[in-house]
Amino acid sequence: MRKNYFVKLVRYMKNVYHLEHGLNKMSDGRVNPTYSTGQVILPVLFGFLLRIKSFNELNFMIKNHEFSKLFPRGTKLPQIDAIRDALKVIDLEGLKQINQDIIKKVVENKVFENGTIDGYMVAAVDGTKFFGGNKKSCSECLTSTKAEKTHCFHSGSLCPQ
User: Fold this and answer.
1) How far apart are CA 84 and CA 70, in angstroms?
2) Calpha distance 51→94 (Å, rounded)
3) Threshold 0.70, pTM exceeds
4) What is the dihedral of CA 100, 106, 110, 112, to 10 degrees?
5) Residue 42 backbone dihedrals phi, psi, to 5 degrees
6) Residue 117: which residues within 8 A CB-CB, separation 6 or more?
7) Domain range summary for the chain, segments of one domain joined by +
């Protein structure tokens, strides 16, 4: 993790948005869990922030102690099986509450000025298939092949308002 930028980001999230407090209030349906729900969710959050593509990669990072600077000394992180088990039965209302708290804090701190973040507009982009078929095609069609059948289609990106 280059120049501890990630560590600084996590500290900022903990100090400003009180992320750990919200995670510690969360619950799930496990009986006698070894790790609290918050301890299970944090490595997954770090995986999202680092754009980790799979739980296998996350497991590799946990085993190699790549998150050691983010937790107090001696903190043992859950293995990927415990993370999977907890995510199957997690209470989604707790996650929704954390999201609402973060949005409330962002508004209080005036992060969004004039509808922008530091002058940048934020937009959601949705990729979609406009139309397609298996019989007709044109020179502009994109193609995908499944089970020796070729499907031709047109797709694009939309920025909904």
Assistant:
1) 21
2) 23
3) no
4) -90
5) -55, -50
6) 111
7) 2-108, 126-158
Residue 160 CA: distances (Å) to CA of 25, 115, 118, 123: 34, 16, 22, 8
* 3-class SS of residue 147: coil
Cα 128 to chain centroid distance, Å, stands at 21
As given in the structure block, the two tokens for residue 12 are 């900022």
Per-residue pLDDT tens digits of the chain, which is 161 residues long = 456 788 888 888 889 988 888 888 888 888 888 888 888 888 898 888 888 888 899 999 999 988 888 888 888 889 998 898 888 888 888 889 988 998 888 888 887 777 777 777 777 777 777 777 777 778 888 888 887 788 888 888 777 65
Token pair recorded at residue 108: 């209080």
Residue 132's H or E segment, with its range, is strand 126-133
Tokens of 24: 């510690």
